Amino acid sequence: MSESLPTEPNQALQREIAGLIVAALNLDLGPQDIQPDAPLYGEGLGLDSIDILEVALVVSKQYGFSLRADSADNVRIFSSLAGLTQHIAANRTK
Fold first, then answer.
1. Which residues contact 38 (CB under 8 A, 6 or more apart)?
2. Which end of the chain has fewer CB atoms < 10 Å from its terminal CB, N or C?
3. For 11-29, how does the pLDDT look when each residue is reduced to its tens digit (9 = 90+)?
4. What is the mean pLDDT of the chain?
């Protein structure tokens, strides 16, 4: 099985989102240290529900669409940096 690599625009977007996460949460690591497929919540990056809410607010402001707290898709969306990037790429308005 071959893994599909992100396209160049998505790689740039992924780096941008990683930077937003680091800045919004004042993390003690660089954006390049966030592994695209590592979980954001719990193990992996170690974010909690308050952190995820902060990320959702920053993403909503930056990319012009709402991430709803009651969305059934949140588990998928926030599963990893790659998952969040895919969702933003598909739904951004700016």
1. 44, 45, 80, 81
2. N
3. 999 999 999 999 999 999 9
4. 89
| 82 CB burial (10 A radius; 0-12, 13-18, 19+) | middle
Question: Tokens for 19?
Answer: 């930077």
SS3 of residue 27 by DSSP: coil
CA–CA distance, 3 with 26 (Å, rounded to integer)? 32
Going 10 to 16 to 22 to 47, the CA torsion angle's sign is: negative
Q: How many other C-beta atoms can be found within 10 angstroms of the C-beta atom of residue 53? A: 13
Enumerate helices (H) and strands (E) in the chain, giving the number of each. 4, 0
Q: Cα angle vertex 45, ends 2, 20, to 5°?
A: 95
Distance CA 29, CA 92 (A): 26
Residue corresponding to tokens 């308050």: 50
